[in-house]
Amino acid sequence: MRNFIFSFLALILLPAYMSGQVIKGKVSDQNGMGIPGAFVVVGNSSVFTYSDFDGSFSINAKVGEILKISLVGFDAISVAATSEPMMITMKESKDTALKEVVVIGYGTAKKRDLTGSIVRIDAKQLADKPNANPIVSVQGKVAGLSIVNSGKPGEDPDVRIRGTVSRYQTKPLYVVDGIFCDDIKFMNASDIESMEVLKDPSSLAIFGVRGANGVIIVTSKKAKNGKTTINYNTSVGFKNVGDTPSLTNGDQFKTLFDEQRSNQGLAPYAYYNKFNVNTNWINEINNDNAKVITNNLSISNGTEKNKFYMGVGFIEDEGLIDYEKYKKFTFNVNNETQLSESIKVGVAMNGYQSSLPQLHNFESALRATPIVSPRNADGMYNQLPLEIGAAQIGNPLAEVEGKKHTQLNEESKFIANVFLEIKIIDGLKFRGSYLSDNSYSKGRGYNPVFDVFVSETDQITSYGGNNLTSVNEFKNNFNKSQQDYNLTYNKTFGKHDFTLLAGYNRLEETFEGMSGTVNQFVGGEPIPYDKRWWYLNVYPYGDPTTRFANSDQWDRASVSYLGRILYNYDGKYTLNASYRRDGSSELSNENRFQNFWSIGAAWDVAKEDFMKDQKIFDQLKVKGSYGVLGNQFSSIHYPSYPAYTTGSSAIFGESVVPAYVLAYRNNPNLKWETVTSYEMGIEMKLLENRLSFETAYFDKTTKDLLTFVDLGSEKFYTNAGEIENRGFEFTAAWNDKINDNFSYSISGNATTLKNEVKSVYEPGFQVFEGPSILTAGAPIGSFYGYVVEGVYQSYADVLNSAPSSLGDYGPGDLKYKDINGDGKLNTEDRTEIGNPTPDVMYGFSMSATYKQFSLSLDFQGVYGNEIYRDWGNGSTFAQFNYRTERLDRWTGAGTSNWEPRLNDGSGYNKLASTYMIEDGSYLRLRNVQFAYDFSSDLLAKTFIQSLRLYLNAQNPITWAHNSGFTPEAGGSPISFGKDTGGYPLPAVTSIGLNVTF
Fold this sequence. Notes:
Elements lengths: L1 H12 L7 E8 L10 E4 L5 E3 L5 E6 L4 E5 L6 E4 L5 E4 L6 H4 L1 E4 L2 E4 L7 E5 L22 E4 L9 E4 L11 E4 L2 E3 L10 E7 L2 H4 L10 E6 L7 E13 L9 H14 L17 H5 L4 E13 L3 E13 L6 E14 L4 E14 L6 H5 L28 H6 L5 E19 L2 E20 L3 E4 L4 E4 L7 E24 L2 E24 L28 E22 L3 E12 L8 E12 L12 E15 L12 E9 L2 E8 L10 E14 L4 E13 L2 E5 L4 E5 L2 E16 L4 E11 L1 E6 L7 E3 L2 E3 L7 E4 L2 E4 L3 H5 L14 E3 L14 E4 L5 E11 L2 E11 L2 E4 L47 E3 L2 E12 L2 H4 L6 E15 L10 E2 L2 E2 L1 E2 L7 E10 L1
Parallel strand pairs: 1-7, 13-16, 49-55
Antiparallel strand pairs: 1-4, 2-3, 2-5, 5-6, 8-9, 10-15, 11-12, 13-14, 15-16, 17-18, 17-56, 18-19, 19-20, 20-21, 21-22, 22-23, 23-26, 24-25, 26-27, 27-28, 28-29, 29-30, 30-31, 31-34, 32-33, 34-35, 35-38, 36-37, 38-39, 38-40, 39-47, 41-42, 42-43, 43-46, 44-45, 47-48, 48-51, 49-50, 51-52, 52-56, ...
C-alpha cells in the first residue's frame, strides 16, 4: 500500500521535473511569517505557481531567470532564480487597504470600500486546532463576537454578535458558499479558506430579515493555478477535566448530615454501618484521557481553464464521561470551469455524516452522597440510601454503564451549489445560482431494565422503579432550496470607482418529523438488549396498545429583492448603500413585505494632500453607518395563523363532542422585528503598517418585539417591546521583525457591552424563565431574586428585622433585604441580582518565530458578568451532597454571616437570591501551540513541499471565581449564564503533523 501511494504521488508530481530545473523557495512577510497564495511566475512566460500554506513554493525555471512574485496587499518584487533554496521577503504595501479584498454579502469588495466592520479570519487561525466545530476556534479572536463553548462533544456553542437582540434567537446567520445555514458544525476546518464576521448595518442590511443577529460568511477552499497539491494533516489529542467542584468527602458529609438532622429534630442517621466509604462520583464516571483524533486529506489542481478541489476529513471525539463518542465524516468538492472568456460554471458540494454521542452529565455525580459504594460485594449496582436521595438521584455509575450504547442517533447533511456566471460586457456580469441544503437526523433508543441493591433492606429492586423495557424512534428531514440571481456592474473612470449590485433571492424550507415509543407487554418477555430489535414494530415483544407516535411538519417560503452601491472617489471618500425587500409566507398579506436598508460613509484622511509628508499614518479612516435590519425568528412558525387546540366539551345525547378553539387570538397585523442600528469608528495603520488600530461605537435597538402575551383569559402575539445593545469595540495589533531569524506579533481586542430592555409589552409586564427575567429597565435574562444581607444571628436579630412572609425561618437562616422599604419581606422585594451579559469581552494573542520554530499563545476572557449557581444549593425533596463551603455554615451567633445553617428540609434558604450568584469573570489561556516547520533545504530532495510538526494545548489554565466546572454558561436568549454543574470544558493536549506534497 505504501509503495502504491508513493507511486501515485510520483505520477502526479513527475511532470514538474521534466523541464528546466526545479527552483524551490519560501515567501515570507517582513515578520518572517510564511505567506500562502503568493503568485510566482517565470518572467513573461505561462509557467507559474502559488506558494503553499507556509509560503513554500517550487517552480520549473533556469538559474538566473527572473521570478516575479505578487500578492494583494504586498508590493510586487522580481528576483533572479538561484539553485539554492530562495528566501524571499515581501513588503506589505503602504496602500494595503486599496488592494485587500474581503467577502461580503453577494460578492466581494475592496477593503478600502467598506464603511463598516467586517473582520476576516483566515485559514491559519482555524487550522491545527482539535475542534469538531470550526466556529469554536474563533473564540476571543473578533471584537464583538461572543462564543460560549460547551464541553459536550457534538454540541453547538452559544454564539452572539454585539449582544442579544431578541427573546427568541441569538445565533447569527451563516452563509456557506452562498447558502443560508443555521450552523457550520457540518464543515471541516481544513476545508475553510476564510470566515468573514459582519457586524455593522452597512454590511448586514443586504441580508434583510436575517441580518439582525449578524452574519458569518464562510468560504470554502478552492484550487489555485499551477500544480497539483496534496495536503494531509492529522492530530491526536487527550482530553481531561480541568478544575472540579469542591465537594465534601465521606467523613465531612456525615458530620454535616447529622448536624442537619439534629437541626430538623431528627436522630443521627442509623445506617452508617452500611454506608461508610468515600466515593468520588466524578472520578467514577469520568473518562480519563478521552481521545480526540482528526485526519484530513485534500487534493487540488488548478489551470487557466479548470480548478478542482476535494477534501475529506474524519474526527473521532470522545466525551469526558465514559461511553460518549462523537464521529464526524466530511467531504468538500468544488470545481470551476472557464468555458470561454465570458462564461464560467461551477459546482460545489459539502457533505457531513455523524454518529452522535449518547450524552450524560455530571449533575448526579455532584449530588450523590459520597458514603455509598457504586457496587456491592457481588458486583451489583448499589441504590443510593433511601433517606439520602434514592427517589430523586440514580446511581451515577449505573446511569452511565447500565444504559451505555442504548441510544443510536445519526445526523447527515448535504449541501450543493451550482452556478453560472456570464460576463455580458466589460464590467457587467450575471451570476445565477441554485443552492440546496438537505439535512437528516434519525435515532433509535432502548430503555433497559436492570436491578440495583437496596442496602438498608438487603433487597433487590429495579433501577429507577422501571419494570418495563421500551423503545423510542425518531426521524427528521429538513430541506432547503435557494435561488440567487444577481447582476453586478463595476466601473472605474478617472477618480471614480463604483460597484452596483441588483439581485433576486428565493428561499423555500420544509420540515417533516416523526417520533414514537412502545413498551414491552406487561408480564411479557423484555425487548432484547440488541439494536436489531430497537424499532417501534418490535414484534413479538412490543405491546401495540402502548405504541404512541407523533409528527410535526411545516414549510415556508420567502422572496427578496436587493440592491447595493459601493462608490469610492479618489481612494479617499467612500459611500455604501444597501436595500432589501423581503416577503414571507409566514405573515399575513397586510405585512408580508418589509423593507430594510442602510447607508454608510468613510473618509481616509491619510490620503489627503495635507497628510502627504507625514510619516506616521499609512491609513486613517473615519467611518460611520446607519440602517434598519430585520429579525424573523419567533417561538412558532406562522404566528399570524394560530392553530386549534382542545377546548370545552359538550354532551349531545349520549355523545361527548370535544370543542376546538384557537390556541391564541389572531393578530393579522403582526410583522417581523426590526433593529435600528448605527456605528461610528476609526481605522488606523501606522509606522509602515506595523501597528494597526481600530475602534468603533455601535448601537442596536430592536423595536416591535414579537411578544407572546398570556393574560390567562386571553392569549395573543403582538409587536411590542424594545431592547437596546450598545458599546465600544477596540482592536489593535503590532507586527515586527527583529532580524532575518526572529519576528513577533501581539494583538488584542476588547468589547464593552451594555444591554437594556426598554419595554416588554405594557408597564409591569414581565416574562420569567426560572431565576431569569425579561423586564423593562434591566438587561435581558437578568437574574431576579432577593438580596442577602447576611444571616440571622439570634432570635433578637429576627425580631429586630422586617418580618417575612416568605416561609418559616429563624436564627441561622439567610436575611433578605427589604428592597422597597415597606417594613416587611415578601415577593415585592425581589429585584435584579445579577447580569449574565459581560460588561467587557476581550482576547489577546502573542506569537514569535525563530528560524523554523514558532510559538503562539491565545488568551480569552470576560469581565463584569454574574453566574447563577444552579447546583449545590440543596433540595427540599432529596438530600444532596454538600459543597465544601458548607463546612463554614452557621452554628451559632457570630460563626457565619453568609453560609446559613444546615436545614435542607426548609425551602427558605433556597429562594433565588444573591446567595446563588457568583462572579462570572474569567481569563482563560485558550490555546498554546509550539511548532517546527522543516526547512526547504531538508525537503529539497523529497516529494514533500512542506512539513510541520506541532504540539497544542487547549484550555490548559483558567483563572476564575466560580465554584463549578467552568465559568462559561450559554443558554437561550432570556435564560443564560446558569451553571447547572452539568459538564466541564475539557483541557486538551494534542500532537499533530501537517504535510504538503
